[in-house]
Design brief:
There is one protein chain. The chain is an alpha+beta fold. Helices cover 25% and strands 28% of the residues. The longest helix has 16 residues. The relative contact order is 0.18. It binds zinc ion.
Length: 186
Amino acid sequence: MAIRRVLTLWDNVRLVEEDAVILRKVSDDVFIPSDHVGKGQIDDLVQTFLDRNDALGLAAPQIGINKRIVIFRNKNFDDSHWTKNEKDYEVLVNPRISSARGEMAAASEGCLSCPDIRVEILRPSEIKVRAYDLKGNKISKRYTNFLARIVQHEIDHLEGKLIVDYEGTYYIPRERQDFFAKIMKG
Ligand SMILES: [Zn+2]
């Protein structure tokens, strides 16, 4: 198992084309029951996620693995309360949103793969998800409100979709505005 680098669409000076290719790809299902390779990939995602204190969630393509695996906190969203306890996060393998309902709600989202910016995104406030758990059991889950937002954000990554693909308002720190004006034009 290994802690991996998190891929980003840009760094401090340029667009990172080689990372973008992987982040933009539609990811494949993990073979179930997962074999040695699949287990290793899941493990790398878990280790990389747990190594960080600034991630609410992480998807496998963000660490260079184009497989349908996501991990996210399910409570203690405030970084200072993040315990990394097994009960405080969930892993979903091959997740699919089976239904979305509830009010559409807007909130600003950040992403480790889109550093320095936030984008206001409209999402349904309730989703149902079908997936497999770590043991390869079929599971069906319901998520609401903030957690529903996190899970939708992570599943977007499996489709190669990022926060910059949404229409909403961008929040860019003043000192980075020239850089973004330049790269967004290209
Ligand atoms: Zn993200």
